[in-house]
Amino acid sequence: MRTNPHILEINTRAWLARLEAKHGRRFMLHEIPDGYWQEFKNRGFDAVWLMGVWKQSPKAAEIARTNTEIQQQIRQVYPDFKAEDIIASPYAVYEYEAAPDLGGEKGLRQLHEKLNGLGIELFLDFVANHTAIDSPSVDADPDLYINTGKEEPHAHKDWFFQNANGVWIAHGRDPYFAPWTDTAQLNYFNPKTKEFMLHNLLKVADLCDGVRCDMAMLTLNKVHRDTWWEFIGGNLPKEEFWSMALQKVREAHADFKFIAEVYWGLEWEIQEMGFDYTYDKVLYDRLRFSNSENIKGHLGAEHLFQMRSIRFTANHDEEESLKAFGRGKSLAASTIIATLPGARMIYLFQMMGHPVRVPIQYVKDFFKEDEAIRDYYARLLKIASKPAFHGGQWSLTEVSPAGGDSASCRNILCWTWKQMNTASTVVINYSDTAAKCLLKVKAAGGEDAQITEEFSGAAQAVTPQLKQQGFEVELKPFESKIFTYAI
Fold it and tell me: Which CATH number fits domain 6-135+178-390: 3.20.20.80, 3.40.50.2020, 2.60.200.20, 3.40.50.2300?
């Protein structure tokens, strides 16, 4: 996989439902027409993260279908939806077994082999914090979970449920939110639980090239203690699950990749445990809610941290980028994340112009594809796949005021990639008003050379005057330009 890889997230069952509607037949994973995978390869994707391939939880599906909040969210987009089109959350994992209705383990292995043959890696989900409420282990071995035995919990009874044998087991939860009622909370202060989940992780690692680890920080010893101290006490285990687990997996699969969904300023701590990439939610929030100066400040972080961050402007958890940012701003934000160091994650429905998020439990999300959005991403990803953006050296670039306008250039973000004898400079007006700046390219090649703007194809000659004085760049609101030239 290239440095600064492009990773495509796919909501597997929702995508398969669209393919079924288009082709008039259902597909298992290994039956998906090769042309789709080839298209993703041609777009420049190094890896595909298939979200939601594990065996479905019957109880989680039942809970989702009767959840009024989920129903209300779907009804806002699809007033005539059918309850049977609501499925279990992919994050209430019943078992780490490939779903039989998607082709089972044999089909998943065939797809893995096919993708690898195209030079695409396969990423799958791993949810360390919890299982589905009806996972077989909930009844078979309740001590894997935070529980109070058959005695009613002395506090927070609403955080618990009873298994088939009357044992009170906690629901999985994030300490800042209500419990996820379709899940059961694993107890990482029990060494047996760590061995159980390591066994599951090794099973997953045998089927793919990497995992996206859901809410990875929840299993850190200190977070686990602070969330559940009333039931597990305060003595921390000597070893972190992730440190042990990543080492064991890489003993069996040396090049296996780990992505962590992580928040609360714990990104660096998780990176130090061996994760290849951690979510850069700070950048997402600054792109969505802040200004160019604050974005520049974040991009000044230590280079290794940048390289091990995964950038995104949409995923299955966030509001669709078109609605969250607005049309022009969403494309500018995506241009930013596609041209920065680190992993660049694109959500398939985002690339198709998905207008508004619906709950991931609803599979028949038959929105109309936006051709203009699709075409922009096709051009952007083609540009961002050029070698300089993957093997080059990245640096922030200063721009100067132009034409007597001393203010608008502050809204411009600019950086340069250099590789051997080529450079690409990215210039983005991250504001809702026009902006201009003076861009200096003293390192540009000699007199017969040209500077080419990648989106438009417009070119201009490199003259001694241009090298010395620079050239003026005018940008519409949220417009991006990428200049490539010899050095």
Answer: 3.20.20.80
What DSSP line would sit under 290-316, residue for residue? Answer: S-HHHHHHHHTS-HHHHHTEEE-S--S
pLDDT tens for 76-91 read 999 999 999 999 999 9
* Whole-Å CA distances, 459 to 240, 451, 483: 54, 5, 9
d(CA 134, CA 143): 15
pLDDT of residue 446: 66
Q: Which of 118, 122, 116, 64 is nearest to 98 (CA)?
A: 122
* Common-topology check for domains 6-135+178-390 and 392-486: no
pLDDT digits (tens, 9 = 90+) for 143-160: 999 999 999 999 999 999
Judge contact between 471 and 450, C-beta under 8 A: no
The span from the CA of 389 to the CA of 343, in Å, is 11
Please give the angle made by the CA atoms of 234, 240 and 241, to the nearest 5 degrees: 115
Ordered DSSP codes for 191-221: HHHHHHHHHHHHHHHTS-SEEEEETGGGGSH
Bridge-partner residues for 425, per DSSP?
Answer: 416, 483
pTM (predicted TM-score): 0.95
CATH no. of 392-486: 2.60.40.1180
Phi, psi at residue 423, to the nearest 5°? Answer: -135, 150
Q: Which residue has the tokens 């699950």?
A: 241
- The C-alpha atoms of residue 245 and residue 256 are separated, in whole angstroms, by 12
Q: Where are the domains of the chain?
A: 6-135+178-390, 392-486
State which amino acid sits at residue 393. Answer: Q
